[in-house]
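User: Before I run my own analysis I want an independent prediction to cross-check against. Here's the chain; please return only the structure tokens and, at the end, one sentence I can use as a sanity check.
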Amino acid sequence: MTLYELTTLEIKVFSNAKVYEALQRNLPEAGGTLIGAFATDIGELSRVLLLRSFDDANRLAEARQRLLMQADPLGCGEWLVSLASNAHALFPFLAPPQPAQLGRWYEFRTYGLKQGLLGQTIAAWEEAVPKRHALSPLVGAFTALDGEQPRFLNIWAYQSLDARARVRADAVAQGLWPPKGGPASLTRMQSTVCTPLAWSRLK
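Assistant: Structure tokens:
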């Protein structure tokens, strides 16, 4: 079963260029397959988000342990404030994310879920996603497998921030989004808007 890991690096202010260079140099040896690398622009700043896929849980665990053992994680130790990694499983009805040019802006949204409602949520998304995806690309929706309360991550691509606002308003006005019953299942929401790095496979 393919798993996905979202790694968030909090870095020192204005160290971005050096961190990007170090990551490009060191990620090929870090394990997994890089899907996207992003810099935060709206939300918590001075952060880099790395989305990678792993063939199975053993490969993910090996890569995570190797990273934890490094004295200079990903070559960024000099500029690193904190590092966090979370494992995810793709919603089963979705195709795996592929390298593509989908937009200048990527929004990472994390939703907390009430206990016991994950299956119901996935079913509601399966019904609603095709029409919503037609308005702007859904990179993926993922169940979080570790960390605190039940939650899931969804990533959307937009050509501009104006397009984001327009698409979101249109989806609500047309009754396409949110999925039926979705809001009642949620406990919290968090959003971060990012730009892809020059060498990201998603752009």
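Sanity check: The chain has a mean pLDDT of 97.
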